[in-house]
Design a protein that fits this description.
Layout lengths: L3 E6 L2 E6 L4 E3 L4 E2 H19 L5 E4 L9 E3 L12 E5 L9 E5 L4 H9 L2 E6 L2 E3 L5 E4 L1 E8 L5 H17 L5 E4 L5 E6 L6 H15 L3 E2 L11 E4 L9 E2 L18 H6 L10 H11 L9
Parallel strand pairs: 15-16
Antiparallel strand pairs: 1-2, 3-4, 5-6, 5-9, 7-8, 9-17, 10-11, 12-14, 12-16, 13-14
GO molecular function: DNA ligase (ATP) activity
Enzyme class: ligase
Pfam family, one: LigD_Prim-Pol
Length: 293
């Protein structure tokens, strides 16, 4: 029998279940600890996901069990959860439209954490008050190392990107993916051309650096850093800043300082768990505070 706990979050009542279920077996990290992390990081995380249609990756039996991506709001979602209905071209389930949830408050974030939605993914654009899609406010480069390359090589490429972006009058903000790679976010107020711009810059860097590829084919990646510019496609999402990841450890997609990028010598230098991130935020504040236009 599932043990249920009734809690009040702000002015909402939520029923939490299975709080002692272990979701990360290697560290005995429980669902209660996942909910606690998301509750404590909410003030820093919500500004980065507010007004963005939500895709979650749910792990009801923990990171070693079956998982599924969920875009459409679950059945029995409380009526106070904000939703927006958007076109879904190319949907894998042949749906013309999808009703997305939008996380804009602590209660909604806790509701999803209780569903074992360990990973939160959002696009680089927001919706307006009426639910219509707005132009992108962020450009993203997803840096994916092909073994034996690691995040150490990603840091080198991130610095090359930072320099090229700076020459174009653009600022950039790095974060870990929470797994093996990292992302670079660029505040963007130049309209809908993010994919074209990112592709052109990735190809330019590829042409002058043997350690970089802009080609998605796996055979092109060994020993190189793949600059995935395609994440700027409006239909795609990227793991959100401060989202947990479903890995062996309860790692988090963690905003970084450029000093950390410059000084990275080992992949272990940039592995941060949920407790680590709470300590970092207490020390640094939100390093991604200006990562969106």
């Amino acid at each position: 029998m599932k043990r249920k706990v009734l809690v009040r979050v702000d002015d909402r009542e939520l029923v939490l279940t299975n709080l002692d279920k272990v979701l990360y077996p290697d560290t005995a990290f429980t669902k209660a600890e996942v909910i606690d992390y998301y509750t404590k990081i909410a003030a820093n995380m919500i500004p980065h996901i507010s007004d963005r249609p939500l895709t979650v990756k749910r792990f009801p039996d923990g990171v070693e069990g079956q998982f599924f991506f969920e875009k459409n709001v679950p059945a029995h979602t409380p009526d106070w959860v904000r939703t927006v209905t958007l076109p879904a071209p190319g949907s894998g389930k042949n749906r013309e439209k999808i009703e997305f949830a939008v996380i804009g408050d602590l209660a909604t974030l806790v509701y999803y954490a209780n569903l074992a939605a360990l990973e939160v993914h959002v696009p680089m654009w927001r919706v307006a008050a009426d639910g219509g899609a707005l132009p992108p406010d962020t450009l993203v480069f997803d840096l994916d190392p092909g073994a034996p390359a690691t995040i150490v090589e990603c840091c080198r490429v991130a610095m090359l990107l930072r320099e090229a972006l700076y020459d174009d009058g653009l600022e950039s903000f790095p974060k870990t993916s929470g797994k093996k790679g990292m992302q670079l976010y660029v505040p963007w107020d130049r309209g809908a051309g993010t994919s074209d711009y990112a592709k052109a810059l990735a190809r330019e860097l590829e042409s002058r650096d043997l350690g970089i590829t802009s080609v998605m084919a796996k055979k092109a990646r060994p020993g190189k850093v793949f600059i995935d510019w395609s994440q700027n496609n409006p239909a795609k999402t990227t793991v959100a800043p401060y989202s947990m990841r479903a890995d062996r450890l309860p790692t988090v997609s963690t905003p970084l300082t450029w000093q950390e990028i410059e000084e990275c010598e080992s992949p272990e230098d940039l592995v941060f768990t949920a407790p680590d991130v709470l300590d970092r935020v207490a020390k640094h504040g939100d390093l991604f505070a200006h990562a969106h236009a």
